[in-house]
Amino acid sequence: MNSPCPLPFLDEAEPVGPIASAEEIVAAARAGRMVILIDDVDRENEGDLVIPADAVDAATVTFMAREACGLVCVAIDGETAARLALPPMTRRATDPMRTAFTVSIEARHGVTTGISAADRARTVAVVADPASGPDDVVMPGHLFPVVAREGGLLTREGHTEAAVDLARLAGRGSAGVICEIMNADGTMARLPDLLVFARRHGLLLGTIADLVAYRREAGLP
């Protein structure tokens, strides 16, 4: 079964193996393709769709919302959060993973209600644009920024840090869009469900652990 969307990040002619190497994951991100990253079984044990923010369009958001069914978020570094003057969602995070959500946002210009795929893609583009500032967004909105911990994957092995580091390793800025993958029954997709999802949609699947090792070898500051 193939995706009903004709999407540029899917390549049905390219077979998907069990687990892609970090090198393959970075190469896919460099080409602007979406990938799946899974974290440790002792952590969230979840798989997220991940793509550099500057490669996102309306078709990307549609695919995430319809096929993955999780929350579409934009992972950013602290510098981006400061540039856009994004306040934290809460002063004291009490969730076990200490996920650093900011107040939700919308692009100030070029959107309608903000929830459509095109509107959310427009908001992502504003976030990814290094020339944008506080006046280019409004709060609250329909896109959820999450701030990566300083030091990235070397300090926290989460999907937020993985998305930011992947974009940096791929030379595509320092922001990425992520969305958790759910099963049709509403439960979270685990292995081997994620392998089936990857094969069905022609996506590479890699591990955050491999990306951590790759980042160390690459010497990313």
UniProtKB/TrEMBL annotation:
<feature type="binding site">
    <location>
        <position position="159"/>
    </location>
    <ligand>
        <name>Mg(2+) 2</name>
    </ligand>
</feature>
<comment type="similarity">
    <text>In the C-terminal section; belongs to the GTP cyclohydrolase II family.</text>
</comment>
<dbReference type="GO" id="GO:0003935">
    <property type="term" value="F:GTP cyclohydrolase II activity"/>
</dbReference>
<keyword id="KW-0456">Lyase</keyword>
<feature type="binding site">
    <location>
        <position position="48"/>
    </location>
    <ligand>
        <name>D-ribulose 5-phosphate</name>
    </ligand>
</feature>
<comment type="function">
    <text>Catalyzes the conversion of D-ribulose 5-phosphate to formate and 3,4-dihydroxy-2-butanone 4-phosphate.</text>
</comment>
<comment type="similarity">
    <text>In the N-terminal section; belongs to the DHBP synthase family.</text>
</comment>
<keyword id="KW-0479">Metal-binding</keyword>
<dbReference type="GO" id="GO:0008686">
    <property type="term" value="F:3,4-dihydroxy-2-butanone-4-phosphate synthase activity"/>
</dbReference>
<dbReference type="InterPro" id="IPR000422">
    <property type="entry name" value="DHBP_synthase_RibB"/>
</dbReference>
<dbReference type="GO" id="GO:0030145">
    <property type="term" value="F:manganese ion binding"/>
</dbReference>
<feature type="binding site">
    <location>
        <begin position="156"/>
        <end position="160"/>
    </location>
    <ligand>
        <name>D-ribulose 5-phosphate</name>
    </ligand>
</feature>
<comment type="pathway">
    <text>Cofactor biosynthesis; riboflavin biosynthesis; 2-hydroxy-3-oxobutyl phosphate from D-ribulose 5-phosphate: step 1/1.</text>
</comment>
<dbReference type="InterPro" id="IPR017945">
    <property type="entry name" value="DHBP_synth_RibB-like_a/b_dom"/>
</dbReference>
<protein>
    <recommendedName>
        <fullName>3,4-dihydroxy-2-butanone 4-phosphate synthase</fullName>
        <ecNumber>4.1.99.12</ecNumber>
    </recommendedName>
</protein>
<keyword id="KW-0464">Manganese</keyword>
<feature type="binding site">
    <location>
        <begin position="43"/>
        <end position="44"/>
    </location>
    <ligand>
        <name>D-ribulose 5-phosphate</name>
    </ligand>
</feature>
<dbReference type="GO" id="GO:0000287">
    <property type="term" value="F:magnesium ion binding"/>
</dbReference>
<comment type="subunit">
    <text>Homodimer.</text>
</comment>
<dbReference type="GO" id="GO:0005829">
    <property type="term" value="C:cytosol"/>
</dbReference>
<keyword id="KW-0686">Riboflavin biosynthesis</keyword>
<feature type="site" description="Essential for catalytic activity">
    <location>
        <position position="180"/>
    </location>
</feature>
<dbReference type="GO" id="GO:0009231">
    <property type="term" value="P:riboflavin biosynthetic process"/>
</dbReference>
<dbReference type="Pfam" id="PF00926">
    <property type="entry name" value="DHBP_synthase"/>
</dbReference>
<feature type="site" description="Essential for catalytic activity">
    <location>
        <position position="142"/>
    </location>
</feature>
<keyword id="KW-0460">Magnesium</keyword>
<feature type="binding site">
    <location>
        <position position="44"/>
    </location>
    <ligand>
        <name>Mg(2+) 1</name>
    </ligand>
</feature>
<feature type="binding site">
    <location>
        <position position="44"/>
    </location>
    <ligand>
        <name>Mg(2+) 2</name>
    </ligand>
</feature>
